[in-house]
Amino acid sequence: MTSSSHTVLEVIRQRYDGLTPAEKRLADSLLENYPVSGLGSITATADNAGVSTPTVARMVQKLGYKGYPEFQAHLHVELEATISNPITKHDRWASGAPTAHILNRFAEAITDNLRETLSTMDVATFDAAAALLRDDKRSVYFVGGRITGALAEYFFTHMQVIRPRATLISTNRSSWPQYLLNMSEGDVIVIFDIRRYEQELATLAETAAANGVVIILFTDVWASPVARHAQHVFKMRIEAPSAWDSSVVTLFTVEALIEAVQSATWEKTRERMNSLETLFERSRLFRRTAPGRER
């Protein structure tokens, strides 16, 4: 039996090593254009992968589904979830909302999100991302979408203190070619993209990856199209009893990465922090407003 808390994508990847060569060929075909590649008939899915129809039937059962219809039903639910707008999400939550206070319901949802995300997060991916971010020979760029841009800016704000060569990419899409022009092979771009994915971010990622730029992606469990070009992917659970998706688990992971990088480079980071404080104190232009004297 397949857990309803896991996407079909996650199930395929978790059980990939136990598949036969023909089933792996089918799995690769499904993953190549997920989830659309699994929305056709069982015959069409088999033909697209170059395998037999019985192979499709066997593999979906091996993944834990009763049959192809149930497998496909899960894909339809996932597809609907990725394109849901805030009103649809609110109505879905409100229709089955219990009588408990919103604080309790929200806390329970966020706790579940954190638990589920951590249970599937690859520690090696976390460590590899932290290693890239602390390598000051690489330039690091940060970018997000309409909502997740705030997370990109938060990450950048801390990293620019910890290390040099950190850049926040403008929200003005027309300026992105100039950023790409300055990226060198081996540089890093951190991208935030959650459901209702933004095509411009996928185009940016594809172009950057073609030039040898390493991509770290923060996305949801359904996975942004950017994932096709990313070397390191963090898939977060974002469901909440709200019209909006939750960023709590994403922020948790960002702050854990900030600490991992800071701890590994503490001597350099401390020097930069001291220098920054000196600049604040010496420069009238950047002088901080004294408490109680904000205007």
UniProtKB/TrEMBL annotation:
PROSITE patterns: HTH_RPIR (PS51071). It comes from the Bacteria. Residues 6-82 form the HTH rpiR-type domain. InterPro entries: Homeodomain-like_sf, HTH_RpiR, RpiR-like, RpiR-like_SIS, SIS_dom, SIS_dom_sf, WH-like_DNA-bd_sf. Keywords: DNA-binding, Transcription, Transcription regulation. Pfam families: HTH_6, SIS. This is MurR/RpiR family transcriptional regulator.
